[in-house]
Design goal:
Low-confidence stretches: none
Largest sheet: none
Mean pLDDT: 86
Distance between the termini: 30 Å
Shape: extended
Strand content: under 5%
């Protein structure tokens, strides 16, 4: 069904936010129109790439919407 079965998103991660953090994420969701899970995934992956110093490389699995 999938070209690469490793690309199926089946891993789960919980994230605990305080009220202010949750409101910030909700505002960003309202502003961008991206659903919360996708937005958080994009933000986490973007930050990971920046931390590793490879954010300048073109990575096809992180959409540009998170920039």
């Amino acid at each position: 069904m999938y070209q690469d079965p490793k690309r199926v998103r089946s891993r789960y991660a919980a994230l605990n936010l305080d009220q202010y953090e949750a409101q910030l994420i909700d505002a960003l969701v309202d502003y961008t129109g991206i659903d919360r899970a996708s937005l958080l995934r994009q933000l986490v992956l973007k930050e990971a790439l920046e931390t590793l110093g490879v954010a300048d490389l073109s990575v096809s699995n992180v959409p540009e919407q998170a920039s």
